[in-house]
User: What shape does this take?
Amino acid sequence: MKYLVLGGNGFIGSHVVDELIARNEDVTSFGLGKAASNSHRYIHVDGNFLDTFLLEKIISGKDVVIHSLSTTVPLSASENPVWDIESNLVGTIKLVEIMASSKVKKLVYLSSGGTVYGNPKNNPVKEFSSLEPFSTYGVTKVAIESHIKVLCKKFGIELVILRPSNPYGVRQNGSGLQGLISTALNHAVQRKPLTVFGDGETVRDYLYVSDLAKLIVQASRNSVTGIFNAGSGLGYSVNQVLSEVEAVTELDIIKEYKPRRAFDVNKIILDSSKAQRELSWNCDVGLHQGIKIQYEWLRESIW
Assistant: This one.
């Protein structure tokens, strides 16, 4: 099959490209900036997601589109909700319309398991739990899900919506905008203070990126459609994660506690039994192992 990976030079998308190449698929990557690797086994197109003329050109002849691209993170979406809607929601609607005109068979869309449920009453959360996002980022994700479900049904496009928990791992940017583990590792190595919002007791479900990439590819190659959570099923507080980072690196993290942010969820753990059952998928990398792999990669990158 012929694949187009939107955001294929990004953190998650680059691992999806790697997984597809390992399975000898025909892959085109799309996103702003250069390719994630120097491999000659795939094509990368440097382009803007909102450039519909370019999208029409590269979508032509593809069988599957994997949409792992986002123009915002929770903080930037909160600061500029209009841009979040114009770029992500409107852009994705246009994408599906282009897919329909190009007769693409399937769309795999990455939503956000960490934000669409809001603060759930019960954990772990199943896919049929109520969607009550209270962040701009989560609201837009829910809106995208709703629109593409209607449009894909209208145009006869097979649709899989994945709701990942908090992905982490090799190649994640440690700038602090997104990704606690990568940020903590970078700050530990550089001996920089790390800002912790709240008391550090907010709980998240962390998923190593290679496990997520395998699920994305499995969903793209499978005839099953629908919505699937993608998480480890285990919850860790911020303080627990930081302790694990300190144990792996043998470095102390300088922590600066500040008031919690309005868009932060208290506790979210995902039930991924549906993906395990229907897509024959399991998490292989535990938290300690994943942090260790990422730390070794970071050390090699720096030194």
The domain at 2-302 is CATH 3.40.50.720 (Rossmann fold). The chain has one domain: 2-302. The longest helix spans residues 81-101. Residues 212 and 230 are 7 Å apart (CA to CA).
